[in-house]
Amino acid sequence: MKSVSLISKLAVAGLAFAVSGTAMASGGHALPYSYVADVDNLPSVQRGASAFMGYCSGCHSMKYLRYSRVGQDLKIPEDLLKANLMFTSDKVGDQIISSLSKAEGAKWFGQAPPDLTLETRARGEDWVYSYLKSFYVDPTRPMGVNNLVLPGASMPHVLWEKQGWQKKAEAEHHEGGEAAHGEKKEGEHAEAAGHGHASPFTLVQQGTLEPREYDKFVGDIVNFMAYAAEPGRSHRQSLGIKAIVYLLILLGFAYLLKKEYWRDVH
Ligand code: HEC
Prior knowledge:
Radius of gyration: 24 Å
Number of strands: 6
Structural class: mainly alpha
Low-confidence stretches: 20-29, 171-196
Shape: elongated
CATH architecture: Orthogonal Bundle
Order of helices and strands: HHEHHEHHHEEHEHHEHH
Bound molecules: heme C
């Protein structure tokens, strides 16, 4: 009996580990925002794919991924894929390669935009989410913006139409009076949904999206990028859980069999 309860405890621990596997991948560090990607949210990953192709693939490639695979995994029919997602090629078997060459990228931005297939695994989902939310106005930079997460980034704020423009909160501090600042801070507190601390930015000009909608928009992109970094993840996890459930059922039968076997002996 004792060994059975130990085994079932181990099985439950294994199940918990399988489920939390994704959350554990990101370490603790001082990023302004945290985010755990949801690759099983198909509509979100589809929206993210469309946003990525529209706003990012002009500069960034995802060379380890083919359009056909994206279409298959995200259940996007070929005609829709061609019409809405394929801006850099018209062959579905092609890899997602940016139309911007490395040399051009280096010439224009000082450094070629990196391939983003494995970005969420290299940097973390939190990091990419924070990066896309952390462009702020900085007239000293060539692009007029800087980034809190990647200081001195040479990428322009490509999502400015959606987010609008934000300033670093400290910059406000010197301009505004003490009382006004105090009030503002409380307002920001409410904005920083669920994060216990105030946003490091003040929105000076809102874009076409409300801050909350922008968060969702960026979340969609990160969900798509997390899918791209490991296209089989969703399938593999569900297979792992099925395998553990199967083993638990088997354990139940083994236990019944053991009881049956020893009944006459006791
Ligand atoms: C106009 C070209 C351009 C567009 C469009 C663009 N980027 Fe970039 N991106 C760059 C450049 C250049 C860098 C390199 C920045 C640096 O290291 O200074 C970069 C860097 C990045 C990085 C950081 C890479 C790293 O690990 O250092 C991420 C993440 C990223 N881009 C995501 C995106 C996403 C998501 C989009 C679409 C919403 C996008 N980019 C659109 C040019 C672009």
